[in-house]
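Bench notes, afternoon.
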Amino acid sequence: MPINLLELFIAFAVLLVSLTFHESAHAWTADRLGDPTARLLGRVSLNPAVHADPIGTVLFPLIAFTTGAPIIGWAKPVPVNISNLRRQRRDFVLVAAAGPASNLVLAVGASLVLHLLEAPGLALLTPASSFLDSMLHVNILLAVFNMVPIPPLDGGNVLAGLLPRGAAVTFDRLRPFGFLILYGLMLTGMLYVLIAPPYRLLLSWLL
């Protein structure tokens, strides 16, 4: 099938905006809680260029969009020096949760504007509604996926901060194997089992 360039542009723009907000939220929260590391590197910014990873933000998503393969994308992780945080364990949980929370904010915003565009007497703008619809779905998916409690995902960092210290140290030993665990979950279909229910629930609320 021929590639729809408008759909490709919308999909890429949505992913770029969503990843940029996600990483910027991590950076802003860390800075507010006492760690200036990300700010000094220019990461408290909504400029996609400072967050984009050539492979994860550009190459892999474009391959997925043009081939129909599952979308895999990421941005450059925001560096956080935990020793600079005022209340280290609690604040690291807040920094980790800020990324998925920002995606939920974008999803809610997209949902509200979609409802306005579809209100009686207003013309439905197809490109705009397509962008907003994609923004809604992608950001719910990003929020739910990133909250899977496996390091180095945000959910893993949140869980590590909530566990007792001894259990957190043991749990953190999974970090080098996190991506292998994720791929195993994807290949067995268990990742879908984990993220589909909360994804559908949030989508039903916002639609």
